[in-house]
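Researcher: For the record, we're logging two predictions in this thread. I'll number them. Prediction 1 follows.
Model: Prediction 1, sequence and structure:
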Amino acid sequence: MSERLDSVRSVAVGLWVRQGRVHEDPAEGGVSHLLEHMAFKGTRRRSARDLAWELERLGGALDAYTTHESTAFQARVPAGDLDIALDVLCDLTFRPRLEARDLEVEREVVLEEIAAAADIPEDIAFEEHARFLYGGHAYGEPILGTRATVRALPATALAEAHRRAYRPDNVVVAAAGAVEHEALVAGLARWLPDRAGGPPPEDPPTPVPGIGMRRIPRDGGRQTHIVTGGLSVPYRDPLRYAIYVTSTALGGGMSSRLFQRIREERGLAYSVYSFHGFFSRAGHVGAFVGTRPETAEEAREALLEELDRLAREGLTKAELDDTRSQLTGQFLISLESPAARMNRLAGIALHGHRYRTLDEVAARIDAVDRTQCLEAAAYFAPDRLATLELAAEAAGGESTPPRS
């Protein structure tokens, strides 16, 4: 898929491989992410430095990331250099060396990445909450894997994942900016490998939610981090737009309910917000608050009270009108860059969704009504949620043991 933007002089282009955390065996958790790293260590034609310099010498850039459902390799280059970008992207994606000596180095890099995340309490809280909420499903497992699985991953696991998933019929290509679609197609015909197809990746099972309360004590720290959330609808469900609106009104900015009630009126937190996410087989909604140990119970109760009120009453007409306007503006502003347009196209293709123009999406947001928002708000009801506290020890007190 491609989208031409006449106002820019650059091109963003990317390849999305349908290979992510949900396609991994539990014992090989993190193989997709480690394989993404290894792709940049060199190919039969280019060294690691050559891969980077080929685009950087043009003023461009190369990047990649892994999600639960896919792995993306992206480039941004000046107009006119699309063919070079496609050559580099196809080379590193389909022809990485995957040598054992590189694996040992990159394994250490990923272990450092895992260690860095383990130093951020908010990240720990969300990781533990995801495991709780998704109850053992791969959607709740960390994309990076764990220290144990990454240390144990053999080179053969990376080679097998690459052989199975990294083939043209399992890849989505998206580009946006100063791009002609015919040039994109011609470049892909030139640089994509002639590799036999295989069976499509299996859809993950539908997850069964975890519900209830867990408290995990931690040494040190000055805050307790509280994450609460529940399962909602998958990406293709039409209620997704009402969830966007409802979640934004709840905690999507300084004017939201959570910010005003918990921070501005009661001073219980510096950071408080809502969140939502959508996968192919499920979605989730929820809220977060970080607070001092001595105010943790009060903050948790205030958070759940707001979620309960939202689930019972939905949004007021004024909230709905204001939030639809807010979301439409945010959506349009967020898509001013070629990279954002490219990522939007890729998401549409990966989920088998119909392409809609910006005006059509804005119209969808504007069409959300209070009845739909009340239906969406039901997913925030406290009795449907998993609540996780990463509990710092209060001054002079003791942490209670975890419970489920």
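Researcher: Logged. Prediction 2.
Model: Prediction 2, sequence and structure:
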Amino acid sequence: MTWKAAFAPLGYRNFAWYYASRFVDTLGSNMAHVALAFAVLEIGNATAVGQVLAARTIPLVVFMLFGGVIADRFPRAVVMQLSNLVAALTWGVMAYLFITGSAELWMILVLAAVNGTSDAAGFPAMAGMVPQLVPREQLQPANALLSLSRGGLTILGPTIGALFVVTVGPGWALAVNALTWVVASILLVPVTIPPRPPKEEQTSTFQELREGWTLFRTTTWLWVVVLAFGFLNAIHAGGLLTLGPAIAKATFGEQGWGLVLSAESAGLLAMTVILLRVKLRRPLLTGMLGCALFGVPLIVLGAQPHLLTMVIVMFVAGAGIEVFSMGWNLAMQENIEDSMLSRAYSYDALGSFVAMPIGQLAYGPLGEAFGHRDVMLWSGVAYIAIALLALTSRSVRNLERAPSAPATTVTS
């Protein structure tokens, strides 16, 4: 694949506007993570920050499946626009409350819950739109371009957010974030996608939920990988993100931990550039092998947490996770019918999000009971074993790229 071909998706008008919208809302999201934490700390403590994050996550999980139905039933661009505008409203009201000094914790909890509820529809719509915007043969470079911007903004966004916090205050930083969501919604206005053919008979929301469940349980590679990630995400959230900082503090220090996390982002970006040129043939086989690499940093943290070694293995792990991310999106977008795609993504997200708090809650007591480094070491072994175990499914390891086909919903 040439560089010209790698950037070809941007030549499609709908994708170019969608890409611009995603760029802006991703920037806002990464700024918000820093700004919200420091804003809440002005009226509470670390426990309050956790409560606000949970207030957003819980409705996101609860309503995710219904969000998938909405995104499959209505035009996804419209669903994204409305979700973005609700996000802008909630962040804007939060900003006003903090700037005027009238914020109370219960107010922020309510606004965070509304924000999470709207994102429960916006996320499946966002994930399901790409196949409607580019021809099938352009899906890999299109997803790579989205990963490239997402990876870069994961590094730059928090830095920009922190700069706003220290210069004008967290309230104004949230106001800037609210503005990015308005801009993201406006950028979707030029996206024009032909409407889906009308259904022969109308179905209820619960019928469509059952259709989504039937698709999920009868598509072997789909439920096998989601089941695996239920365990893998629990290990990642509990091991790396909960015990990891404690091990780092006792060994190579807090600043070193920042370098380790940055190395992961750098590996992700480097692999994204490679995937702009190199075509994946078996997306889930290569994806799960890449995913297994993430167990290595956990083993190193448990066995011999040396800074340079950690930076190297986290760079490689980040590259491996990006291979999985690309492989997973290609598997979903090429093999799931468009009318069901958002529901498939909603089941995927539900399996991922539900597992994270389980790991976060369990690993602290496990580390205290059995030792942080021992728990981390065996978690790394388990991570690799689970990723490879998914490949014992023939449906996972043998899934190939779908053949190119004309895309009737794509306009240049």
